[in-house]
From TrEMBL:
It holds the Pfam family Lipoxygenase. Residues 1-249 form the Lipoxygenase domain. Keywords: Dioxygenase, Metal-binding, Oxidoreductase. This is Lipoxygenase domain-containing protein. GO terms for biological process: lipid oxidation. SUPFAM superfamilies: Lipoxigenase (SSF48484). It comes from Phrynocephalus forsythii. Residues 128-140 have a biased composition (Basic and acidic residues). InterPro entries: LipOase, LipOase_C, LipOase_C_sf. PANTHER family: LIPOXYGENASE. The keyword ATP-binding does not apply.
Length: 249
């Protein structure tokens, strides 16, 4: 799906350029990686210093042996023995719980809100009998489908529950936000790196909106003309928008 390109900000050239998840996601991934890179370099001046951090090494040992004991001996799981490995590890963890979660989760409401897309149950069993009625109904697949899904009244709880899980409280903090710097750290290097990260996220969100308004990028709106905004914040905090700093499911 992608090939290496040094000139690209994230080092990759997409095979399908009008691919919103990949385009937006790679920009967010790159911003996270730069922030993690700066953060690690503030605390660890060399790989040796990182290897000598017993607390860090014990944390990663617990993640591998307890959290993922079934995969602890896999060769593809690297150790935390270099700054580069730690950078890749932390970037992956942050991306998975933030940008990726928002991108694949927040589209559920719009999709499930139209019942035929995602019926929560079937009220009748499908029959394999080839009797006269079945042969007759086979010519009417729409009628067959509508006869086995629940009524709107019975199934309205499904999109309602989905919408509730995707709503944002007033105090929600999004990726790149941390109100009250003085309560977090007094280290000026960390604050400078984080503020740069915050600006990067704001620029990415602005770029998402610009791409959504480009008529040439048809995949960003689709046939239903619904823009791709899962990873862009909404000032009105409507559900299904933005990348929270935490996940609930």
């Amino acid at each position: 799906m992608a090939a290496g390109r040094e000139k690209k900000k994230h080092g990759l050239k997409l095979t399908i350029e009008d691919y919103p998840y990949a385009v937006d996601g790679l920009e967010i991934w790159s911003a996270i990686r730069r922030w993690v890179h700066e953060f690690i370099n503030i605390f660890y001046k060399s790989d040796g210093a990182l290897q000598a951090d017993n607390e860090l090494q014990q944390w990663w040992s617990e993640v591998r042996s307890t959290g993922h004991g079934d995969k602890s001996h896999e060769k593809w799981i690297s150790g935390v023995d270099s700054k580069a490995n730690l950078e890749n590890l932390l970037t992956t963890l942050i991306w998975t719980a933030s940008g990726r979660h928002a991108a694949v989760n927040y589209g559920q409401y719009a999709y499930q809100g139209f019942l035929p897309n995602h019926p929560s149950r079937h009220t009748q069993a499908h029959t394999a009998r080839r009797d006269q009625r079945t042969r007759r109904d086979a010519r009417k697949p729409r009628e067959i489908f509508l006869s086995v899904i629940p009524t709107k009244g019975r199934d309205c709880h499904a999109p309602h529950n989905t919408g509730s899980s995707l709503s944002h409280p007033e105090e929600e903090e999004y990726l790149g936000q941390r109100p009250g710097d003085e309560h977090w750290t007094s280290n000026p290097e960390i604050l400078a790196a984080f503020h740069a990260f915050s600006r990067s996220i704001a620029e990415i969100e602005s770029g998402i909106e610009q791409r959504n308004s480009d008529p040439q990028l048809k995949n960003r709106r689709g046939p239903a003309n619904v823009p791709t905004r899962s990873c862009a914040r909404d000032p009105r905090r409507r559900h299904g928008r933005g990348i929270p700093n935490s996940i609930t499911i």
